Amino acid sequence: MNQKGHEFFAGDLFGEIYQAEEQVPAAPGASILPGLLVCGTASLAAAFLAQQYGFPIILLGLLIGLALSFVSDAESTTPGLDFASRHLLRAGIVLLGLQVTAAQVSSLGWAVFASLLGVMAAAFAAALLAARIVGESRAAGILAGGATAICGASAALVLYGVIGRDRLDQARFSVTLVGISVASAIAMSLYPALAKLVGFSDTQAGFLIGASVHDAAQAIGGGYSYSDEAGANATVVKLARVAMLAPIAAGVALWLGSSEKGGKASWRKIALPGFILGFMALLVVNSVIAVPEPLRDGALTLSKAMLLVAVTATAMRSRLSALLETGWRTLFPVIAASLASFLAAYAAALWVAQ
């Protein structure tokens, strides 16, 4: 493979970004069709297996893409994989803005919303501390903590776009993404059963599941597996977390920008990517205008499809040898953040969400 240090963006299901380390420049007029056909077919296989066996679709897309990573050796696939991992990712994230409104966040009430922020802060702090303990970078802690606190793989991709590969390499990002997906699948299966065991009410169970399960679809599904009322509560709580995606991404950009040499943030470095601004714009539109339900449902379906293809294309561009080099230390911040998120959400459910 031609190795010239060009950058490109890639992404995951539910909205996130990372920069791959290598890309073969596309020849003028090169067709995106071969690459799109390959990652599109792999995505259809992931969707079929997820439907048949109830396995997390994002994790399946990631694993199938990694298994087919050899296809990126063919230069004819490069333009299509690049297009999917860059443009489909961004478009999918923007469309997610139609799934959240300001009213949904405000309906929680100040006490519950403050507790939710406390849960998110606990996840962030645990990941940063764990990363420091095992010798990982602050960027690794931010990525693991943000993905756990907000909306799983989607948030990981967005935050990686802000962090950049100069602070965190692609291999560590890929391992973190796998860890987040597995942890979310375990949480979706385990937390409803634990809530039943301790006798939580529907409100308490909805808060626990919505505040601590990483992936949005799995948090909502886990809530409804407990009861319809718990599912409705989990949906509102989880959407409130998703709504924090743009503010937290902006905060991370400010934080990292201000830590550059000289201690002053460069507005060029901390400016939010266009897809985040698009997400925020649609969120505002959805908050002030009654968007028809069929349109919102169609946008969600299209967004999920785009993000599935994007994460599959991203995995196809990953180097398996680099994944093996990262070791267990990369997963430690994810584990710490997940445990902290659960314990904080459990405590908040006991005292606030009764």
Short précis:
The chain has 354 residues and is mainly α. Helix content is 71%, strand content 3%.
Keywords:
about 350 residues, mainly alpha, two-stranded antiparallel sheet, 17 helices, globular, disordered N terminus
Description:
With 354 residues, the protein is mainly alpha-helical. It has one domain (8-351). The chain is built from 17 helices and two strands. It has helices at residues 33-53, 57-67, 78-95, 102-106, 110-133, 138-149, 153-163, 170-197, 202-212, 216-226, 228-243, 245-258, 267-270, 274-288, 293-316, 320-325, 332-351; strands at residues 8-12, 16-20. Strands 1-2 form a two-stranded antiparallel ribbon. A hairpin with a 3-residue loop joins strand 1 (8-12) and strand 2. Helix 3 (78-95) runs parallel beside helix 14, helix 5 runs antiparallel to helix 17 (332-351) and helix 6 (138-149) packs across helix 17. It is globular and about 55 Å long. Keywords: Cell membrane, Membrane, Transmembrane, Transmembrane helix.
Which helices and strands, and how do they pair?
Blueprint: E1 8-12, E2 16-20, H1 33-53, H2 57-67, H3 78-95, H4 102-106, H5 110-133, H6 138-149, H7 153-163, H8 170-197, H9 202-212, H10 216-226, H11 228-243, H12 245-258, H13 267-270, H14 274-288, H15 293-316, H16 320-325, H17 332-351
Antiparallel strand pairs: 1-2
Helix pairs in contact: 1-2, 1-3, 1-15, 2-15, 3-14, 3-15, 5-6, 5-17, 6-7, 6-8, 6-17, 7-12, 8-9, 8-10, 9-10, 9-11, 9-17, 10-11
How do the strands of the widest beta sheet line up side by side?
A: 1-2
Task: Note the total helix count.
Answer: 17
* Global outline: globular
> Which parts are unreliable, with pLDDT below 50 for 5 consecutive residues or more?
1-29, 262-270
- Regarding quaternary structure, how should these chains be classified? single chain
Q: Largest sheet, if any?
A: 2 strands, antiparallel
Strand content: under 5%
